[in-house]
Amino acid sequence: MVGFLIITHHELASSLLSAARMLGADTERMRAVGLMEDEGPEAFAERVSQAVREADTGDGVIALADLFGGTPFNTIFRIAQQKEVSVVTGVNLPMILAAAFEPEKTQSREEMADALRDAGAGQIRTYGKV
After folding, report:
1. What 3-state class would DSSP assign to 109?
2. How far apart (Å, rounded) are the C-alpha atoms in residues 81 and 85?
3. Rounded distance between C-alpha atoms, residue 49 and residue 7, angstroms
4. Which pick of 25, 28, 59, 97 has the fewest CB atoms within 10 Å?
């Protein structure tokens, strides 16, 4: 089964994972890593590499990053060039819940990454006066 890594600035990653648990999600295959203000890039990259190793059970990892072009994204993108890691940006709670609750209906890690992107985007809506 595919593993998941939530990678963000500060404590957003661990907060999203906690919220998913509160909603009944099985987060055993998920890891969360947040870049802290006082953390250097090498130390952060090592924590990310360790989380990828922990999350990967043999079928690779899908990393859900908060912001395209930010340090968390750039770090996991470099790692993804050498490991079986797909990266999706714009992480939100619906993506994490889809990863936890949806059975793996897709054939590949890349297809699953696309499905998670669609799940996250599908929950973005605007409401106001009608």
Report:
1. helix
2. 8
3. 11
4. 28
Note every long-range contact of 34-37, with CB atoms under 8 Å and residues 24 or more positions apart, other chains counting: 34/7, 34/8, 34/9, 34/10, 34/72, 35/8, 35/9, 35/10, 35/71, 35/72, 35/75, 36/10, 37/10
CB atoms within 10 A of CB 119: 18
Token duo for residue 50: 């360790």
Q: Give the chain's length.
A: 130
